[in-house]
Amino acid sequence: MLRDMLVLDFTKGYCGAFATSALAVQGAKVHKIIIEDNKDFLLNLGIKAEGSSTRFMAYNGNKEVVIVDKGQEEGLNSLIKNADVIVVNENINKGFISYEKVKEMNPNVVFANISALGENYQKMPYAESSAFVQALAGIVDMTGFPEKAPVMPGANMIENFCGLSLSVAIVTAYYNKLMNNTGENIKFSMYNTVFSIMESPILFSELQNLDVSRCGNGDYGTLVPYDVYECKDGYFSAGLAGETGWDRFCEAIGKPELIEDERFITNEKRCENYKEATAIISEFCLTKTRNELVKVFTTKDIPNSPVLSIGETMQVGQVNDREMVVPLPNGWLVPGNPVKSV
Questions:
Q1: CB 200 within 8 A of CB 143
Q2: How far is CA 253 from CA 110, 141, 230, 236, 249, in A?
Q3: Phi-psi domain of 173 (left: phi exceeds 0; alpha: psi -120 through 50; beta: other)
Q4: Helix (H, G, I), strand (E, B), or coil: what is residue 45?
Q5: Are 63 and 87 spatial neighbours (Cβ–Cβ below 8 Å)?
Q6: Judging by DSSP bridges, how do beta strands 48-49 and 85-89 pair with one another?
Q7: Strands 184-189 and 226-231
Q8: What is the pTM of this model?
């Protein structure tokens, strides 16, 4: 879909690399620009082989790598003049490549400038600690169990979410470029992007004056039951999407007497009595395997799923049938594109 788009990726790390990788999956031609004496730190992470690493290849395997010797940056001018999109890190590329310099050579370019905190970040408290925006934006405080320390989100999901959001912004600007023959200077803040997904705790804070923090696997301020429960052979997730379904849930766990129990008769009541409801459900789940629980809850039309490991997920038919694991030219496996066009 983006086969006529030429992208220059000057970024280091995950966010920009994920964004431009998403563009490449959609057909864009992406050049990963590496300055020889200031290489992307991803090259040193993960398993190293063939002059690269698993981390670098996972995010850049569908791009053409262009290595530039320090002091020979002028050789990039021909690429810059013809590029549709240029993506940089503000703190890394400052002084080397800027929107002002690029615009002189390519007035209609889409220029995406990634920063951790955004404009006027100096006014923020703790601005010097910009490396962990998920901590500054409240995500870390919301992750984990209430009686334990906060937990960093896993699997680079925050960086990847930012990268995906950036790719959407780039495609939108590129469409405007095609329609109106005009470029755009995208000033992308990772902090603002992460903060934007905190709508639920923000609403609790602003509308109910509640100081919301981490609550484990449940959502006992909003929905009960909606949790992860231990079972005979691992863990299992089950819950209701709203007010209805409590009668079916009670029948599924063999406790029809709870349907009219005043402690649980409404979702609001169940939220108030979360610990009691969870204790009853947990006791039932511990008597069953994951497969048994799938049958029990599916029969009663209750949303449910076993908690699968990454190894188990790799064997799921949907993953293979939809080509969600694909080989790079060197044979390494990476996640595929979730968007399938027909």
A1: no
A2: 56, 33, 14, 14, 6
A3: alpha
A4: coil
A5: no
A6: unpaired
A7: unpaired
A8: 0.84
Q: Give the list of residues 6+ apart from residue 227 with CB closer than 8 angstroms, or none.
A: 216, 217, 218, 219, 237, 238, 239, 278, 281
pLDDT digits (tens, 9 = 90+) for 121-156: 656 666 565 567 888 888 899 889 988 999 888 878
Q: What is the dihedral of CA 38, 167, 27, 335, to 10 degrees?
A: 80
DSSP class of residue 228? E
SS3 for 14-31, per residue?
A: CHHHHHHHHHHHCCCEEE
CA–CA dist 217, 215 (Å, integer)? 7
Backbone angles phi, psi at 127, to 5 degrees: -60, -30
What is the spatial distance between Cα 126 and Cα 138, in angstroms, rounded to a whole number? 13
pLDDT digit string, tens, across residues 199-227: 878 877 777 777 788 888 887 778 999 99
Q: CB–CB of 293/287 below 8 Å?
A: no
Secondary structure of 94-124 in the HEC alphabet?
CCCCCHHHHHHHCCCCEEEEEECCCCCHHHC
Query: What whole-number distance in Å separates Cα of residue 116 and Cα of residue 190?
Result: 5
Task: Of 298, 286, 320, give the one whose Cα is nearest residue 238.
Answer: 298
The closest alpha carbon to 94, from 38, 137, 55, 133, belongs to 38
Contact at 8 Å (CB) between 99 and 113?
Answer: yes
Task: Find the range with the poorest average confidence among 18-32, 162-176, 193-207.
Answer: 193-207
Reading the block at residue 128, the tokens are: 């010097």
Whether the Cβ atoms of residue 244 and residue 252 lie closer than 8 Å to each other: no
Q: Which residues contact 293 (CB under 8 A, 6 or more apart)?
A: 231, 236, 238, 285, 304, 306
Count of residues for the chain?
A: 342
User: In whole angstroms, what is the distance from residue 131 CA to residue 135 CA?
Assistant: 9
The average pLDDT across 327-333 equals 76
Chain centroid offset of residue 318 CA: 20
